[in-house]
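pls ignore typos typing on phone
magnesium ion + seq
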Amino acid sequence: MLVTAIEARPLRSLERLRVELAPGIVSVVGPNGAGKTNLVEALYFALTGRSFRTSDRRELIPFGGSLARAEATVRDEDGIERRLLASVSRSEGRRHLLDGNPADPATIARSRPPVAVFAPDRLTLVKGPPAERRAHLDGFLAARWPARGELRKRYGQALAQRNALLSRLAAGYGNPADLGVWDAGLATAAAALVEARAEAVAELAGPFTATAAELGFDTSVALAYAPRAEGSAEEIRAGLEERRATDVNLGRSSWGPHLDELKLEADGRSLRKYGSQGQQRAALLALLFAEREALRRARRVVPLLLLDDVMSELDPDRRERLVARLGDGGQALITAADRESLPPPALATVVPMPPESEAGA
Ligand SMILES: Nc1ncnc2c1ncn2[C@@H]1O[C@H](COP(=O)(O)OP(=O)(O)OP(=O)(O)O)[C@@H](O)[C@H]1O
Ligand SMILES: [Mg+2]
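k done
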């Protein structure tokens, strides 16, 4: 699946811009503030309906405007083109349309390539709290096994129900016996989620270590899943029952996969706590590449890789290794402030920002 064009009309500083995308690597080159990241964001927004920069989509609306809109054209293996249009408006909220019609998220997800983003602020995935890593891992497993895409949501719903009762009990209301039903539901959802996460990490761990080495890590880097609760649904249910008194006191669930951790380590030490900036960046890239590899092998889909400002973080040798890695198929959009930072294979298709027709205008 290929993205053949992206259009911002408008989005942030981009009033109206259409860029045709080639297969392989497309490099967007221009000075600071030219709108490169805005273009990457427009593409991500058109495909996913979200932004990787903010949870408040209204920030995408141009200053003084009332609407932000981005459209991507996607071509599938049979050559059929479809248009994905995302918009957010001050008065009408947000929309995500497939060929002009509202479509549910699952249908939209099937109509586009998976997307992976590297951007400097995405380093919080390595540096930040575990919740981000859990969300990221769950995003990967939804792309890897579409049928398991609902596991995270199902667990979240069961957890919210159990927590609602726990908080009533903590306040002196409700009937503790009712917890039995919620425990069973939560345990079933938890067991499925934990199993899927474990399988996902088992697939990613090898390629993660190998890619990190390829990107120049001189220590041994590892990815590991640290589940809070393990075992069958029945075992997890029993575990919940054991912790009931504690949970009623707290007014919430103190045990389960909502507390899992995805560990990124170098020589057995947490990269989150001890990694250098460069190591944390390389680890994030290694994770994205490991996921790309897994999706290619299992589903024969290759995620579209959006690499915002990745080159400025890397020395020349690592830049070359990175671009060589991208040459293995799929599509990648790279932004850079100058051509000199791009190794030759990344110069085959260069999109200037601002567009040449506008430069100097
Ligand atoms: N909602 C908005 N409306 C209008 N302009 C905006 C909005 N949000 C951001 N901008 C402007 O968009 C411009 C371009 O931003 P962008 O982040 O895309 O630049 P860039 O080319 O990626 O630069 P850099 O090389 O520094 O990363 C900035 O000047 C910023 O002020
Ligand atoms: Mg930028």
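The pocket of magnesium ion (ligand 2) is lined by residues 36-37, 308-309 (CB under 6 Å). The chain has a mean pLDDT of 94. more later
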